[in-house]
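We now fix the convention by which a protein and its fold are recorded. The integers have meaning only within a learned vocabulary of local backbone shapes. The record below shows the convention in full.
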Amino acid sequence: MKDIRDNARKLMQGFCRVCKVCDGRACAGEVPGMGGLGTAASFQNNVTALAAVKLNMRLLHGNSEPDTSTNVLGLDLDMPVMAAPIGGVSFNMGGKISEEEYTDAVVGGCKDSGVIGCTGDGVPPFIHEAGFKAIADADGRGIPFIKPWEGAELDEKLEKARATGCTCFGMDVDAAGLITLKQMGRPVAPKPVAELKALIAKVHSWNARFILKGVMTPDEARLAVEAGADGIVVSNHGGRVLDHTPGTAEVLPAVAAEAKGETAILVDGGVRTGTDVLKLIALGADAVLIGRPISVAAVGGLRTGVSTYLGTIKGQLKGAMVLTGCGSIADITGRVVF
């Protein structure tokens, strides 16, 4: 991982410093780039909220070889981890590798590791085209996220995504305020429940599932359930769209209390280690999305870089499960948190 990170630091120069501690402090305001919007308070809150969660250590048990596997949204996963949907290599990561190389690394590396990669959307068109190609090449083993476009563009991209063979579709409504899209003359907008209901019904008619990313409050979790979403992602878009939001680990328990069991609860934001994954599962998530660290691994080591990083995460997760007395993912409950 050190070699992968060192290579990524060279290739991402001017766009990401690949800091030893990825906490949003050095890259505040660097959007485009890998930083957080404005003061980067939202980015930093994600990291500090997770760091504030303390764990109960338990060692009087027999769980020496915990099982990290799970099933979320009908997907068998080797651990409750997915790659968050990130795109725009040229203007966010330095462009030293192509968008196709990047998406192949993320989706392919996740498939190699028994988990699943999500792909991003944006402008220019090659961003979503590269993502769709990577999912198709992985025999549908990926989740395409489409931004909340207005008009025909949304339907057109859904149909293209359907052709990849995927079984889940996502929409990152938290992209509704992205500066980069507005600068390119392609603004996106929030989506009312009535419009979401029709969209989700269409996806369900394809025998597929739909994930809504960008839910940060219990009331919107309830609205997502009413709209028919099969899963929600508690996310502030990595702190890239609205300054001064709370960290996702802070709001996750209340959101999970509102909608757990009615829709799959996913979360991203500040995840850096397998112990972070365990914390978020204990706080109510069914699975966890990892963003910037997987991007760094993809740029620095392509497909092997991603699978190497995910192998590290799995090892850390297993170790944390042993030390908290958890033999399976189902054992990771609120009792783990101090």
Residues 70-322 form a domain with the TIM Barrel fold (CATH 3.20.20.70). The CA atoms of residues 25 and 216 lie 23 Å apart. The longest strand covers residues 142-146. The mean pLDDT is 96.
